[in-house]
Amino acid sequence: MDELLIFVKAFVVGGLICVIGQILIQTTKLTSARILVLYVVAGVVLTAIGVYKPLVDFAGAGATVPLTGFGYSLAMGAVEAVNSYGLFGALAGGVTRTAAGIAAAVFFGLLNALIFKPKAKP
Amino acid sequence: MRVGKQTFVYEKPPEVASHASVVGPKEGGGPLADYFDVILDDDLLGMKSWELAESEMLRRCALLAMKEGGIPEGSAQAFFTGDLNDQIIASGFAGRALELPFVGLYGACSTFVEGLVLASGLISGGFLENALCAASSHFCTAERQFRLPLEMGTQRTPSAQWTATAAGCALLRNSDAKNRLRVTAGTLGKVVDYEIKDANHMGAAMAPAVESTIRAHLSDTGRTAGDFDLIVTGDLGWIGREILLELFSRSGKPLPSEKLVDCGASLYFQEQDPHAGGSGCGCVASVSCGWIMKRMEEGELRRVLLTGSGAMMSPTSSLQAESIPSIAYAASLEVI
Amino acid sequence: MSKNQAQKVREYAKIVEEKTPKSRHVRGCLRAFWVGGLICVIGQCFTNLAVALNLSEMTAPMFTSCVLIFLGTTLTGIGVYDRIGKYAGAGSIVPITGFANSVAAPAIEFRREGMVLGLGARLFQLAGPVLTYGISASIVFGIIYWAVKEWLL
C-alpha cells in the first residue's frame, strides 16, 4: 500500500502542477516558451523560500519531473556549491548539478535530428 | 478607367481563359475535393525542403493553367505571383523554372486577387495580351516561419487557422468572345489596422480591411451586395466571417449572410480540425480557381465579387508586440 | 490617432470578444492533469528503479531526468510528441519531456538549413530562454544565500 502511495502522490501533485500551466495557457496569451521559463524560475524561487523541498519529499517525481523540478535542481546546486566553495559556487553550482540533464537534451536532440525528418501534421 | 476612389472598371475586361488548382492531401480530403485539378499525396513532392516543395507545386499549377489555356509553355506574357515565404522565394524559384516575365507580389493571403486586379489593368490597357495570375502557400513553410517547428507539442487556439497547402493559377487573356468568364472590375484596398495583436486571430485582424474594400467597391461602382450572386472572402475563417457580418450590420447596410462565402471556412470539414478555417495565399487562389470559377463556367453563378485579404505582419513584428495591419483587394468576376 | 479612430478600435475589440469562442477550459485541464500526472508516475518508476540499482541519492533524480529526456526526444523524432501535445497541452509542456521536445523539434525542423547554423543553432531556439533565466535565477539565489550565510549567520 505504501509503495502505491508514492505513485498516487506523484500523479496528483504532478497533474496539478500541469493544470496550473494549462489554466495559464487558456486564460492568458502566454506561449509555451514563456511558460517553460516561468516554471523554471518559479522552481528556483520556491526552493529559495523553502517551499519546494518539502514538496519534493512528499511527492517525489510529482515535484521533480515538472520543469519546476529543474529549477529546484538549479537552486539546490547553487546552495551546495556555495556551502563547498563560497561565493564562486553561486556561478557554478546550478549548472553543475543539472549538467547531466542539459547534456542529455543536447545530445539526444542532436541524435534525433540526425535520424529523423520533420513530418507534416495530419 | 478609374471610377470613384479605388476602383478600375476594365474597358476591355480580360477573359479567364483557364484556371488550375493544385492542393495537398489534407485539402484533398475536404468538401471541395472534386473541384480541384490535382490533389497531391506527398506534400514534400519529392523535394529536399518544404520551400522547394511549395515552389514545385506552384510551378506545376502554372504549367497546368497554360496547358488548359491552349498556349505553349513559356509563352505567357507575364507571371504575377506571390507567397508567404520570406522574400517570396517559392515564387522566385518557380519563376526561375518557368522563365516568364515575372511580377513578384506581396499581399499576404490577398496576393492572388491583387494579381488579378493588376494584370487585368495591363491587359485591358493594351499592354499585355495574356497574363498568369497565381499564388501559393504551404502549411509546413508557414509553420516554421511564423509559428513553431512541426514536431513541437502545442495546442492551437480556437481562432487559429490552418495554412493551406495549395496553389491556384488563372490565365487571363484579351478576347472578344461572347459569354465568357471575365474580370470586369478591380478595387485596390487600403491598409487598415484595428489594433489586433493576436497573430492567432487573423480573422479579427483582417475583417476591417475586407469591410473597407467591399464598401469602396460598392460605392465606387454604384452596385449593391444584391447585384452579386456571391460575395467571396479569402480566409477570414468562420469567426472572421461572423465579425464581418456584424460590422456590416452595424453600419446599417447588412450583407445577406447566405451570399457571403469564405474560402477558408469552406476548405475543410470540421472533423479535419482546422479550428477557425483555412488560410494562406493558396487558399483563396485554389478555391477561386477550383470551386468558384468552375461553378461560374457551368452557369450556376453569373456575377461574383471575389475579395482576398492579407494580414501584413511578420514574425519580427509579432515578437515586437506590434498590431497587425491588413489589406484586402476585390475583383468582380462576371460571365458576359 | 484621433478620438474617433480610438472609439472605433474599442468598439471593434468588443465585437471580436463577442464573436470569438473560448477554449474548452474544463476538458483542457482534465487532459493536462492526467497526462502530466502519468508522466510523473513514469518518472517515479524510474526513480524507484534507480534506487533499486543502488544509485546514490544525488544520482537517482539525474537518472530519471535523463531517461525522460531520452523518451521526450525520441517521441519527438518519431512524430508522436506533437500529437500528445495537441491533446494534453500543459500536461506535455510542463514535464521535463516537454523541455526535451522543445530542444529536439527545432533541431529536426531546421536541419535543412545546415548542421551548424540550422540544427546546431536551433537546438536552443526555445530551450535557450529556459537556460538563460533558470541559470541566472540560480546565480542570483546563490549570491543571496552566500550573503545571508556570511553576514547573518
Overview of this protein structure:
The complex is a heterotrimer of chains A (122), B (336) and C (153). By secondary structure, chain A is mainly α. Chain A has helices spanning 2-27, 32-48, 52-59, 61-64, 67-85, 89-115. Chain A has one domain. Helix content of chain A is 83%, strand content 0%. In chain A, 52% of the residues are buried. The mean pLDDT of chain A is 92. Chain B is an alpha/beta fold and 336 residues long. Chain B has a 7-stranded mixed β-sheet with strand order 1-2-10-15-14-11-12, sandwiched between helices. Chain B has a 6-stranded mixed β-sheet with strand order 4-3-9-7-5-6, with helices on both faces. Chain B has a two-stranded parallel ribbon with strand order 8-13. In chain B, strand 11 (230-233), helix 7 and strand 12 form a beta-alpha-beta unit. In chain B, helix 2 (50-68) packs across helix 3 (89-98) and helix 6 (202-221) crosses helix 7. Chain C has 8 helices and no strands. Chain C has a domain at 23-126. Chain C is extended, with a radius of gyration of 22 Å. Helix content of chain C is 80%, strand content 0%. The N and C termini of chain C lie far apart (59 Å). Chains in contact: A-B, A-C, B-C. At the A-C interface, helix 1, helix 2, helix 4, helix 5 and helix 6 of A face helix 2, helix 3, helix 5, helix 6 and helix 8 of C.
The run of helices and strands of chain B is EEEHEHEHEHEHEEEHEHEHEHEHE
* Span of the ends, CA to CA of chain A: 43 Å
Give the strand order, joined by hyphens, for the main sheet of chain B: 1-2-10-15-14-11-12
Q: Number of folding domains of chain A? A: 1
Number of DSSP E strands of chain B = 15
Helix content of chain B: 25-40%
Distance between the first and last residues' Cα of chain B: 19 Å
Count of extended strands of chain A:
0
Radius of gyration of CA atoms of chain B, rounded to a whole number:
18 Å
